[in-house]
Amino acid sequence: MKRYSAFAIAKNALSYHQGWERAWAKPQMKKEYDAVIIGAGGHGLATAFYLGKNYGITNVAIIEKGWLGGGNTGRNTTIIRSNYLQDPSAAIYEKARSLYETMSQDLNYNVMFSPRGVMMLAQTEAEIRGYKRTAHANKLQGVKTEYIGPQKVKALCPIIELSGPRYPVLGALWQSRGGTARHDAVAWGYARACSEMGMDIIQQCEVTGVMQSRGKVMGVQTSKGNVKCKKLGIVVAGNSGHLAEMAGFRLPLESVALQALVSEPIKPCMDVVVMANTVHGYMSQSDKGEMVIGGGTDGFNNYTQRGSFHHLEETVRALIETFPMVSRLKMLRHWGGIVDVTGDRSPIISKTPLSGCFINCGWGTGGFKAIPGSGWAMAELMAKDEQTGLGAQFGLNRFQEGRFIDESVAAGVAH
Amino acid sequence: MLNLKCPNCEITADETDLHCDGQAHIERFGTGASDDDLETYLFMRHNPKGVHFERWRHVFGCGKWFNVARCTVTLEVFGTYSAQSLVPPKSLINKIKKKRPEWEGFVK
Ligand SMILES: Cc1cc2nc3c(=O)[nH]c(=O)nc-3n(C[C@H](O)[C@H](O)[C@H](O)COP(=O)(O)OP(=O)(O)OC[C@H]3O[C@@H](n4cnc5c(N)ncnc54)[C@H](O)[C@@H]3O)c2cc1C
Ligand SMILES: [Zn+2]
Known about the structure:
The structure holds two protein chains of two kinds.
Chain A: H1 6-13, E1 32-38, H2 42-55, E2 60-63, H3 87-101, H4 103-107, E3 118-122, H5 125-141, E4 146-148, H6 150-156, E5 171-175, H7 183-196, E6 200-202, E7 207-213, E8 216-222, E9 225-234, H8 240-247, E10 253-265, E11 273-276, E12 281-285, E13 290-301, H9 309-322, E14 331-342, E15 348-351, E16 357-361, H10 371-384, H11 397-401, H12 408-411
Parallel strand pairs in A: 1-2, 1-9, 2-6, 3-11, 9-16
Antiparallel strand pairs in A: 3-5, 4-5, 7-8, 8-9, 10-13, 10-14, 11-12, 12-13, 15-16
Helix pairs in contact in A: 2-7, 2-10, 3-10
Chain B: E1 3-5, E2 12-14, E3 19-23, H1 35-42, E4 51-57, E5 65-71, E6 77-82, H2 90-99
Antiparallel strand pairs in B: 1-2, 3-4, 4-5, 5-6
């Protein structure tokens, strides 16, 4: 693999940029691998990356039914923060956030991580108390975050209207090292690094069955034939329930549509990310100038990757009170992804009833920020076959044991 | 937008008049139940890619609950029926089977 650098750009300019090599290979699928990962989204690719980097396991295939990064990873609004409430969540999200800081260097791929700051508005008394509680918890966990008053909110984000009338801005939880990153680049950067380690990324190949014998996983059936493996990682977000059914177990989650939309590009007007959880809306400005807007999930089980129109309208309508300028914006594009939502709004990184088969899912509406931390934890789980390390608390057994990692408050709209 | 006919008041309502409350026909367990049964009741969900039976409420209408059979991939609605049913009506099951021969049938 040729390294990307300023020097490489200058050199390639001499040949009119015709000489760049492909970022990742297009291999034929082999008959057998040490490990197969289903799903080439951010989480699947990061899992493969850390299997190779941290454990030296490189005889790995990542099988993707569409194109890599074409699932939720390529559909999300890229908010990155780590100020969650519970200890296990703060640990894994903060690990992820810190890995984002050096990801461009680590992968030699510009993921455009932009730690511009993320604020979550407090617009009710209950929210003030909730966010202050999170700020205290974060202090104990060593996660840098603070509770700020309305004047500081206005100073950081001048286009905000503080006075309501329905929901005045009373304060905010502010994480100055949170921000955004280029979603596609995260998938592409990992894919390039995995390919470089000799792993096979098989695209346009759907897994249609899980082969097992005596309670142990043997491999998977795919649209391009069968492939054997010693270990299997299911990392398919909204399709987790479907894959679990193939493997013979059920999951404590449901799949629903989550939508987002962007406006026409306008001049720079907002250099932070703002989330308004009470009215269910959030907004940031992309480098292209588009206002990136999202809200809560649609209301029913759905696998169609598109949602209801009225939901978009509700999201935008809710934002207008806090951001009056939104009412003058033309909206350009909208889309949806299928997110897998658990009862306690925390992810699952777990062994399964099928020996040798592991699952990473339940990131729901907020897993982009967790990609590197999640891959780190999932690789450890798969390599050691042991519920330990960063993912130790995220096992499936927590539901039976009543040991929830309740993030329904801290997550709010949940991004 | 989804349109569902409420079997209680016979009105065909828009999605915005309704509220979905997830999987229908969940078997309930109380004190003394096994850990497995309680977990299944409280948390485990079928979440199928295909035919789904679910509970809806006509919130901005008659206010009553009813059940719906719907496809989660095409959003096709196969039918609605009373929330008092312990299992989906036979006629509805047959109708779905005719449309979806590959369907595994109703499972709890
Ligand atoms: C509109 C929207 C906004 C969001 N905003 C944010 C945000 O601001 N911040 C944040 O942190 N998170 C956000 N999220 C959540 C985030 O996108 C996800 O949690 C994260 O991207 C999940 O990554 P993944 O790799 O697990 O899943 P995906 O990227 O969905 O990857 C799973 C892959 O598995 C493949 N697959 C499925 N079934 C099969 C099969 N049978 N065979 C082979 N391959 C299969 C799919 O094609 C897909 O590519 C948002 C999500 C959406 C939809
Ligand atoms: Zn009614």
